[in-house]
Amino acid sequence: MPSTPRAPAEGGTRPTLAVVAQRAGTSVPTVSKALRGGTDVAPATRERILRVAAELGYEQPVAGGLQGHDEQSAGLVDFVLASVEGSWANSALGGVEAAASAADLDVVITLAREGTDWVDRVLRRASCGAVLAVIAPTPEQWRRLAEAGRPVVLLDPMASPPRGVASVGAMNWQGGRSAAEHLIELGHRRIAVIDVSDSYEYSRARLDGFRSVLSAAGLDVAEADRAHAGWKRVAAREAALRMLARPDRPTAVFACTEPLALGVYEAAAELGLSIPADLSVVGFDDLPEAGWASPPMTTVQQPVAEMGAAALRMLLRIGERPAADGHAPREELATRLIVRGSTGPAPA
Length: 348
Hints:
By secondary structure, the chain is α/β, with parallel strands linked by helices. The chain has helices at residues 17-24, 28-35, 43-56, 69-73, 87-102, 118-123, 139-147, 172-185, 201-216, 233-244, 258-270, 288-292, 304-320; strands at residues 76-81, 106-111, 130-133, 152-155, 166-170, 191-195, 226-228, 252-255, 280-285, 298-301, 330-333, 336-338.
């Protein structure tokens, strides 16, 4: 059995929050809240924590003087993402912050800009761990995070997570299926797809789910009716212009993100096509822009804020109880189709 932590001898190492948490039988964030006077700790738990802290000789560090890893990690969590622009990032941040606030933690944002050493900036400060949103760390970056013992959760992973790395995403495959089922029910048979890239797992899953329904109906996406546009609205517009200017143009377009779908809106307007009378459009995400579009956009909703909150809660769980067998948890939140004004029956 593991030994019970004891108060340090005179001149010994000062006990940490982790030691107090272990002795009190609770989590580091709960200990931090109790010692800082948080009101959402059960009275019995607070009393036990205060008693253990006194027995161990634990002293709460003064502001600005945090030197030990555990004291700093009790109050901070990292949120790493490629950009803070756009509604997706704002929704994800809102979810992460709400869950962090419930655990009495503060969120530190780090931008993983190309060519910058974001891992060094994350490891420069101690924290409870990091939520990495829509980024794909290199093997070297994974190695450095692992060697530092920093707990990590991937949010909406771009690639299959390495063994031992936890992740939270959406049911992208099922979301793609629901988009295809809706368009086929409306009578569409020539349907185009504009996706992000074959390189990204969530983009492939959306397209695979979409094509599975088409295949069951004896249909497929013609090569001329498929394009990769990254996350660029202008690239989606240019691709849609090429598709929609042909005499045998598609009657519907599935865009794997809403910025890409808005690029399709722009192309249709330039060509004098009416949505949905001449062209139906389905997006993916259900960001505020979908409701603001004219007409409001039919889209597959993924619960971005809830995904961010789930990722933060998972990070705290694995920080307290790492998986002994190396198998990290994976959570996928449900998607659902939101039907608005951008889809209608296929033209005669």
